[in-house]
Write a structure and sequence with these properties.
305 residues; 5-stranded antiparallel β-sheet; single chain; Neuraminidase; 25 strands; mainly beta
Length: 305
Amino acid sequence: MSHTPPSRTVEILSDARYVQAESPRWDGRDGGLAWIDMATGSLHRGRLEHGRVIPETAVVIGAQIGAPIPLAEPGAGWLVGVDRRVVHIGDDAVVTALTGDVAAPGDYMNDGGGDPSGRFWVGSQSMPRDPHCTLWSIGADGIPVARLDGVTVSNGLAFDPTGSTLYYIDTLPHRSIEAFDVAPDGTLSNRRTVCRVDGGNPDGMTIDLDGNLWVAVWDAAEVRRYSPEGELLETIALPAKRPTAVALVGSVLVITTASIGLAAPGEADGALLGVQVDVGGIPAWPWAGEAPVQHGAGSIAEAAL
């Protein structure tokens, strides 16, 4: 049963509007916020202050961009899935490949995130839609390990605080949240369905300190909160039709949205939204590896905003 507390207020946090904002991340190193615009191939960084997102920098990769994850050390930059591979983006905006192409030709990296052991989990999505994609984990050695095959659109994932349970969304075809047991070496087992997500496409996901799952539901104009057992606890109606992902920045639920594909975008479509919630979360788990050696910059541009 869904319960909607009357006190929830959805605020527009950003002045900017993005084509396809995605993958918000609370950076535990400096308290900042990062997010991407998939359609423009850009990584954005800023701060959440006094109820507004204050943008600071944007790095344009010039390619299809997926999930970011911070490195553990302050100033060490970010890993980001880009096209078919994973790259490192330094705080100096230099882009260096971490891996070669790992996704299949014609596919590209999509959502992902870290686990408590310091691995970066990132999956691909297929174009056109077909269940041949993969979810990988990348340990501190920088080597991608295939963890799950038969994926169509790898989207939200979240780990419980112990790292022993992975909650995962392969958006198509089943539109469900699934769970896996995670061994210390990252092996997945005991796949099971937590719940089906009806009325839209489940996209990005995060977990709060009580273990509940917050899910952005594309084309439903909603964020939903589910218990670890799959009970729908709350539905928050949004002024944007296509929410893409969520992050808990303390007790503020930050929601990225998209304007892509909408014939007549409204005021909030493509904005970053925020909702004060009762139970917060923790910063994004960082990747435990070191930045790769730079062999020269690619085609990049940085803008101070």
